[in-house]
Amino acid sequence: MGQGLWRVARNQQLQHQGYSGQGYLTREHGRRIASSNVSNTSHRKQTQGGIDIYHLLKTRKSKEQEGFINLEMLPPELSFTILSYLNATDLCLASCVWQDLANDELLWQGLCKSTWGHCSIYNKNPPLGFSFRKLYMQLDEGSLTFNANPDEGVNYFMSKGILDDSPKEIAKFIFCTRTLNWKKLRIYLDERRDVLDDLVTLHNFRNQFLPNALREFFRHIHAPEERGEYLETLITKFSHRFCACNPDLMRELGLSPDAVYVLCYSLILLSIDLTSPHVKNKMSKREFIRNTRRAAQNISEDFVGHLYDNIYLIGHVAA
Questions:
Q1: Mean of pLDDT over the chain
Q2: Which residues lie below 8 Å from residue 213, measured CB to CB, with a gap of 6+?
Q3: Whole-angstrom Cα distance, residue 79 to residue 269?
Q4: Which residues form the SEC7 domain (predicted)?
């Protein structure tokens, strides 16, 4: 009875102060409405500010739908710069739209020299009716022919006046070209030792660490898959060339071409040992130093240790 009277009195007090359930919900609803009005006002302001952005995007989209940019309306320097990023196939397609721009000799000259860095015809007076676009097609055709039959490919280049019949010119062409199949090139160089001699002399190994120089050498002249006379010939020629490019270093280390030859063979064997998954027990640094110094006694232990570290960290010299 006392508790019931207390609840009645308390409810009357809350109603008098405006904190009844109904009043509380009414005031809470009012707060939400006010908050909603503020947020709606803020949203309208953002919407009014975003109308300009929407119209800009819509206008830009409508302009883009009108078509591509006409390169002929741009300054010639800018048009040529844009077209210079295209390869030969895309440039031929572009010539269907912008014939005068896409057939420009400077563009095709750049494509020729970026793919085939040296040709004898570059240093000659161009014959009547010469064009770099036509030359590009002939160079591409000759490269495909070389990759099928190296002798026929070289004869094709000579018949078109692209290359002179000279081992030095052929060697320069091979050295500056990256589109030739390396397997066919290896067969060709094995048969044409005169071209191989000139190709080796084009390498500059000055101030290069021996394993790095050997990697660069085998990037241009790929090593055979098996040991044999051709591999021995390559290493011999490399050793003499490396010594010729670094005479001061050879004197300082007391190395001769024969010693460099031994080191190159050691590096190749070490590369196989460390990288082959079939070799379970890898050669240690101590074993490599001991074996190498046994074959070439004048070599310092520190130098041989650096050779091992290079192969261990960078990888195969003839990969």
A1: 82
A2: 205, 238, 242
A3: 53
A4: 133-314
pLDDT, mean of residues 212-234: 91
pLDDT, one tens digit per residue, over 64-104 is: 545 567 777 888 888 888 888 988 899 889 888 888 888 89
pLDDT digits (tens, 9 = 90+) for 94-138: 888 888 888 899 999 999 999 999 999 999 998 888 999 999 999
Q: Which CATH number does the domain 203-314 belong to among 3.20.20.140, 1.10.1000.11, 3.30.300.20, 3.40.640.10?
A: 1.10.1000.11
The predicted model scores a pTM of 0.72
Contacts with 105 (C-beta within 8 Å, 6 or more apart), sequence order = 131, 132, 133
The number of residues in the chain equals 319
- pLDDT per position as a tens digit, 298-315: 788 999 999 999 999 999
Surface-to-core class of residue 237, CB atoms within 10 Å of its CB (0-12 exposed, 13-18 middle, 19+ buried): buried
Other beta carbons less than 10 A from residue 114's beta carbon: 11
Does residue 231 register a pLDDT over 80? yes
Out of 2.60.40, 3.40.50, 1.10.220, 2.60.120, the CATH code matching 85-181 is: 1.10.220
> Which of the pair, 300 or 61, is modelled with greater confidence?
300
Residue extents of the structural domains in the chain: 85-181, 203-314
